[in-house]
Amino acid sequence: MKLTSIKLCNFRSFYGKTPEITLAAGNVCNTTMVYGSNGAGKTSFLNAFTWVLYEKFSAAFASTEQLVNKRAIAESQPGEPVECSVEIGWEHEGIRYRAKRGCRVYKNQSDIIEAGKTQLRMWLGGEDGQWKIPNQLPEEIITQILPASLHQYFFFDGERIEEIVRSDNKAEIAEAIRTFLGVEVIELSIRHLKDAKKSLETEFKHIGDAETKQLLTQKEKQEIEIETINQRQTEINQELEYQQTFKKEVSNKLRELSAVKELQERKQSLDSQRDSLREDLKKTRENLKKVISARGYTVLLSETTHKFREIFTDLKQSGELTAGISREFINDLLNTGRCICGADLREGTHTHFHVKNLMRKSGSSTVEETAIRMSAQVDEIDKQADAFWEEADREQTRVKQLRDNLSQVESELDSIQEQLRKDPNEEISNLQKRLDEIEAKSDELNREQGANQQEVSHLKTTIDALIKQISKQKQNEEKQSLAQRRINATQDAIDRLSEVKNRQENQFRLQLEQRVQEIFADISFTPYIPKISEKYELSLVENTTGIEAPVAASTGENQILSLSFIASIIDKVRDWSERRKMIMLPESSTFPIVMDSPFGSLDANSRRHIARTIPKLANQLVVLVTKTQWRVEVEEEIADKIGKEYVLVYYSSKPNCEQDFIELGREKYALVRQSLNGFEYTEIVEVERN
Q1: Do residues 181 and 512 lie in contact, with contact meaning Cβ atoms separated by under 8 Å?
Q2: Of 181, 264, 315, 592, which one's alpha carbon is 20 to 30 angstroms from that of 298?
Q3: What is the Cα–Cα distance from 601 to 409, expressed in whole angstroms?
Q4: Is 530 left (phi over 0), alpha (psi -120 to 50) or beta?
Q5: pTM
Q6: Mapping DSSP to helix (H, G, I), strand (E, B) and coil, where does residue 467 land?
Q7: How many CA atoms lie within 13 A of 609 on its CB side?
Q8: What angle do CA 105, 107, 113 make, to 5 degrees?
């Protein structure tokens, strides 16, 4: 997808019809710069793209219901329609597209604004230069090119980019990733197979005997119960995320109160310590389980090893383990009838009698070799038993230490919370009580979730038992046998597809994490390591002591982490696009990035690294910045990548407003000017460089 142009009409601060803006799309000069002051319409410009394509807006886009320019509405007559629209052009896989989304508003006699519905239209450019209406719905075409769940990684607000790392966004991240992983297709296949399995089992019930029918009915009831519980688990997960969001909001309000700022900061630090200790305690317990699972059996073999040594000693004392000529060797000589020295060993001879007498005193080589080998193994078992006790003691000591530390932290947290509950300031005590209610609700939901998991596990065990019973039923009829084979084959396909899905998701997550780490290390000077959890939660850890510990990242570090994540996502979207078709045109894996204020909270060094990196993130880049953000380090890194430049000129209705300018290519361009008509609005001016 290569963006070629954008044209606005009465969209937010942009009054009237703007000239069509051509976007840079070269192989080298692939960057379009848009300069504007705060409030000039940079965020509106960004959201113009997402509105026309997906009818969605970024988080910072306020008053989404007020899309139509206020000046255009004020100048209109009652009943006269005021059009608001955005039209963009792009190319994809050799095809030219134009899409236009528009809406109309009307002002009645009472100056009340009445808005109509938005409408999306699309045209496809033919090889003959003519434009035609596609047979497919515009929304479907856009989704096939760049799914809506992925749009936030290509059109984003840089000042709020760090919100990507928030835990309450993990569901959106996971959903976006599922799109180009292809797991939706696998899940659809699994659903269809489950439906087919139900149909086969219904058929099996009709041809099976009474006992089989009863077992299948019981199994069906258990499966319905599992489905009901799983639906409830999804609701609980959503509710827990809501509660977590509420908790953050209330905690932030508490931190904003100067009277308890230090106390709340201490509480936040203790919360982090508690979470870290809980995670360490969980890992230590898992390590202890692994130790017991791997070598715990050795301590139960002490009596057996002791008994073996007694038997070994008895065999040695009885002469059965005497080293020398073995019983098998002597028996072979007697069978051949001749000694290795040539003497006659035929039965009845004097030599035969003496050699046979020797065999009674000889030991068995097989017994001796086995006994010696087992003796070495028994010694190893005893060593492992000693090592097991040492490691188990060490892990148990660590468990106790972590429990003690956790108890101290929780005790101090309880003390702080009690102080806040009893604070004479009613606002503080009420906020703490609200936090208590949130914690209580979360605990209740977690307990319900745990009980549900146990119930599902129990039901699955019951279903497995029923499946075994069903399989054992005598299948007298040929149809019954065929139906059973089909059911088994369907279940096998479901199990295999589920395993493929799980492996694919896990492998992708690890690949994505590795790519994020590479990009983050290239941009940031900190030694921190990005991590992506199984739930797609982004975080930073440090490993200077050999033990991973979470990092309380700054806003700037979170911005860098989010940009690294976006860059990694884009790489994977390119791979996804290239895999979708066997034959692709060269530009089929081209995707743009439109980013508003990506340098806001970064220091000079990070700004330089980001400015150097972002033109490499995508094949096409549109960057919206203020004059302050367009500093020396950014200009130096991006200048040779710029293909097009535009300035958003803001006309302020404020009396005697202070005008502002930006110097580009030795020419001054106005950023802020005095409005002469009493309205505020924005014009777009193209930068002309010699």
Answers
A1: no
A2: 315
A3: 33
A4: beta
A5: 0.57
A6: helix
A7: 20
A8: 65
Which residue is listed with tokens 């009943």? 79
pLDDT at 363 over 60: no
Dump pLDDT digits (tens) for 273-294: 888 888 888 899 888 888 888 8
pLDDT tens per residue across span 187-238: 788 888 888 888 888 777 666 567 777 888 888 898 899 999 999 988 988 8
Residue in this structure with the two tokens 């096998």, named with its chain if needed = 492
Supply 630's token pair: 């367009």
Task: Locate 71 and state its tokens.
Answer: 């000046």
Q: Is the dihedral of CA 605, 609, 612, 617 positive or negative?
A: negative
Q: Indicate if the alpha-carbon torsion angle 387, 390, 394, 396 is positive or negative.
A: positive
> Strands of 529-532's sheet, edge to edge?
529-532, 538-542, 549-550
Place of tokens 């977590």: 244
Q: Is 438:246 a contact under the CB 8 Å cutoff?
A: yes
How far is residue 397's CA from residue 400's CA, in Å, rounded to a whole number? 5
Q: By the 8 A CB rule, do 613 and 593 touch?
A: no
Q: Which two tokens stand for residue 197?
A: 């399995």
Question: Residue 471: CA atoms inside 13 Å, Cβ hemisphere, count?
Answer: 12
From 30, 12, 180, select the one nearest 85 (Cα to Cα): 12
Q: Are 90 and 192 in contact (CB under 8 A)?
A: no
Among 641, 636, 602, CA closest to 623:
641
Using CA atoms, how far residue 154 sits from 278, 590, 618, 628, in Å, is 37, 12, 9, 24
Phi, psi of 70 (to 5 degrees): -65, -35
Looking at the DSSP bridge assignments, the partners of residue 682 are: 14, 650
37 near 628, Cβ under 8 Å? no
Query: What interhelical angle do 478-523 and 555-579 show, nearest 10?
Result: 130
Encoded tokens for 65: 């219901």
